[in-house]
Amino acid sequence: MNSGDDFTERVLAVVEDIPAGRVMTYGDVAAAVGSRAARAVGRTMAHFGHEVPWWRVVRASGHPATGHEARALEHFREEGTPLVDGAAGIRVDLAAARYRP
DNA sequence: ACGGTGACTAACC
DNA sequence: CGGTTAGCCACCG
């Protein structure tokens, strides 16, 4: 019953380990599983993200996943995630919200 | 085995 | 700040 995909399983485990009010970048999650496939992490979220707090995973710029910014923003406000209001719109304050294991 | 693809990142102008 | 280019890695048919 092994799902067979170690990478995917590890990624989901890391995302679930992110506490509320904090976020991690795709690159950080990839590094946490011992890889640098930030893109592969994004794909994993697109397929399995419905079972994990995908909104706690953001891009290196502090913006949430492309096409899901509005949805992530609702969760950020709800969990009290540090946000920054800038010209590019609203984004997560990585300096304060980035989760460092 | 191979090429295309993507909820990405960093560098450059 | 923003738009573009190239590099990166894992999954799918």
Automatic annotation (TrEMBL):
Methylated-DNA-[protein]-cysteine S-methyltransferase DNA binding domain ranges (all copies): 6-67
Transmembrane intervals: none
Pfam families on file: DNA_binding_1
InterPro entries: ATL_DNA_repair, MethylDNA_cys_MeTrfase_DNA-bd, MethylDNA_cys_MeTrfase_DNAb, WH-like_DNA-bd_sf
Keyword annotations: DNA damage
Classification via PANTHER family: 6-O-METHYLGUANINE DNA METHYLTRANSFERASE, ALKYLTRANSFERASE-LIKE PROTEIN 1
Protein name: Alkylated DNA nucleotide flippase Atl1
Organism: Antiquaquibacter oligotrophicus
